[in-house]
Design goal:
single chain, alpha+beta, Aminopeptidase, globular, GNAT family N-acetyltransferase, Acyl_CoA_acyltransferase
């Protein structure tokens, strides 16, 4: 989709590698399949200290939602978000939260069209992210 905000993964800094390794150790990554083919992935967190800090209300946090290019625009991302939302509701969460690079206007608009509201911004090492939440 011509989005370049993930280019740092070609030569990721150590903290990003550790972030992925931590998610693998904690079984937080989930793969999306169509038949036998993996078409995407998502990381689901029960807390997100880096972007959100300590929060009072229970929430699930969506990270690294990616879909293979050839499956883009076919509703895969929406389906994943709906399944995560259903899980969050079942677990008694008040919110579903995520972040998106503030320069990625297509992605920000996508999340807003999925019912997320921008509630703030967070500056991190490589970017400024918009913080979004959806009340459940």
């Amino acid at each position: 989709m011509g989005i370049d905000h993930w280019q740092y993964w070609k030569n990721p800094p150590a903290e990003k590698v550790e972030w992925v390794e931590e998610g693998i150790r904690n079984n937080e990554f989930f793969f999306v399949k169509s038949g036998d083919e993996i078409v995407g992935m998502v990381r689901i967190l029960e807390e997100d200290w880096l972007y959100w800090g300590e929060q009072k209300d229970k929430a699930l946090y969506v990270h690294s939602l990616v879909v293979k290019e050839e499956y883009g625009g076919k509703g895969v991302g929406s389906d994943v978000l709906k399944k995560v939302e259903n899980r969050a509701k079942a677990e008694g969460c008040k919110y579903l939260r995520l972040d998106a690079d503030s320069k990625n206007h297509k992605l920000c608009n996508y999340y807003e069209n999925q019912g997320f509201k921008k509630v703030g911004t967070k500056e991190v090492t490589l970017s400024v992210s918009n913080l979004y939440e959806k009340e459940l």
